[in-house]
Amino acid sequence: IQVTQSPSSLSASVGDRVTITCRASQDIISSLAWYQQKPGKAPKLLIYAASTLQSGVPSRFSGSGSETDFTLTISSLQPEDFATYYCLQVDTYPFTFGPGTKVDIK
Amino acid sequence: QVQLVQSGAEVKQPGASVKVSCRASGYNFSDYYIHWVRQAPGQGLEVMGWIDTISGVTYYTQNFQGRVTMTRDTSITTAYMQLSRLRSEDTGLYHCTRGVGTRSSARFDPWGQGTLVTVSS
Question: Taking Cα atoms as reference points, which of B45, B13, B14 lies closest to residue B114?
Fold first, then answer.
């Protein structure tokens, strides 16, 4: 299953609402997770099952979507949110990641 | 807390092999698969395969079949990934991660800190 993300990068300011889109090449129901990765660090789980917030993750992060189209939203961007975000389809092994969306400071 | 701690950085020559370890703590090691994920410099994330920590059964993705071997030692709650016949394109950060949940709730969590493997003559 191929996974695409858009945009590949974006510039935003603190307080902005940010939306990242992930598209799967076939219906994956709600089998999608979102990760945040900072340079030199391991990915951190944010969302799983398309919309379930991982314990300890701030509520400004939310996920939505089903079948082939999914969205990660950050309601009010904070300084610590500047990072690269990846989606991961977990419907069929091998699980596949999107190519990533880099969020940097405007 | 649940933690995966990996071995340190490696520098290898082309054609050599590398073996990376991943020590688990804070949970019952045999209850979860361990997956390995590679990240080439400036690139995205690629799943290499998994090992069933109870049975030792493995699954390798097509890009790594024939060159990767995943093993585990339950007595020390450690998983291993060995990659052979290294080439420069294998340079990257190698992560172990625990597979959690089933069906649509499946996810990788947590992750090891990553092991940098550099292949250079």
Answer: B45
Contacts of B112 in chain A (CB under 8 A): 42
Residue A71 CB contacts under 8 Å (≥ 6 apart), including other chains: A19, A20, A21, A22, A63, A64, A65
Q: What is the model's pLDDT at position B41? A: 86
Element containing residue B6 per DSSP (H, E): strand B3-6
Q: Which residues of B touch A96 (CB under 8 A)?
A: 47
Mutate to test the interface with B, among A34, A88, A89 (most CBs of B within 10 A): A88
pLDDT in tens, B10-39: 999 999 999 999 999 999 999 999 999 999
Look at residue A40 in the predicted model and tell me its pLDDT. 86
Please report residues of A whose CB lies closer than 8 A to that of B103: 31
Chain centroid to Cα A77, Å, comes to 14
pLDDT at residue B43, rounded to an integer: 81
A86 and B111 within 8 Å at the Cβ level: the answer is no
**B101 interface with A at CB cutoff 8 Å:** yes
- Which stretches in chain B have pLDDT values below 70? none
Taking the Cβ of residue B49 and every Cβ of chain A, the question of whether any pair is shorter than 8 Å is answered with: yes
